[in-house]
Amino acid sequence: MENQGNSDDIATVFISSALHDEICDLAARGWPEECCGLLIASNQSPTHIRRIVPARNIATEPRKTFEIDPQTLIDTYRAVRGRDEAVVGCFHSHPNGNVLPSTTDRSRADVHGFLWLIVAADQSGVLQSGMYRAQHQSPAQINGGETIRYFRRCQVIQSATA
Fold first, then answer.
1. What is the pLDDT along the chain (162 residues), one digit of tens a residue?
2. Is-contact 112 63, C-beta < 8 A?
3. What does the alpha-carbon distance between residue 74 and residue 3 come to, in Å, rounded to a whole number?
4. Could you give phi then psi for residue 50, rounded to 5 degrees?
């Protein structure tokens, strides 16, 4: 059952099997480079992924990291404004077969609560996937005044429809 508290407490994310398969296909076809894109949900159900927006990876080293094409970001954020939707996360692949968020992922997790779907792949195809929610611990809560970023693993429920 989905938690009904604030978004920091929500640990369950719903995505249709078709959307999950589409992301996995992008990861397998893109190997050995990282694929990437955005996760879109309705404003009323931010934990139910409604659709995805694949993006071109413009990173200078696409085998090691990803950077979503800025034009895709601009176009997508403009489009969701008029559709009662929100960009609630991103997806990308790790062509090294590791499903855990990398140090680079953590350093780029600028938006508290943003979802990160990571698909682990290697030359044989997709191995597994994991969904994570970016978490920030505020400076008031820790010594030194530096914000700590980390990821909380989410439970993913795949269904015929999200």
1. 333 334 445 589 999 999 999 999 999 999 999 999 999 999 999 999 999 999 999 999 999 999 999 999 999 999 999 899 999 999 999 999 999 999 999 999 989 899 999 999 999 999 999 999 999 876 555 556 677 788 999 999 988 775
2. no
3. 31
4. -90, -40
List phi, psi (to 5°) of 40: -115, 135
How far apart, in whole angstroms, are the C-alpha atoms of residue 111 and residue 74?
Answer: 16
* Inter-residue contact 118 to 101 (CB < 8 Å): yes
Give, as one character, the DSSP assignment of residue 97. Answer: S
What is the rounded distance in angstroms from the CA atom of residue 81 to the CA atom of residue 114?
Answer: 17
Confirm whether 34 is a catalytic residue. Answer: yes
DSSP string, 45-85: -TTEEEEEEEE-B--SSTTT---B-HHHHHHHHHHHHTTTE
Residue type (1 letter), 75: D
CA distance 113 to 88: 8
The residue annotated as part of the active site, out of 2, 22, 33, 34, is: 34
In this structure, are residues 80 and 87 in contact, taking their beta carbons and an 8 Å threshold?
yes
Q: Say how far apart CA 88 and CA 43 lie, in whole Å.
A: 9
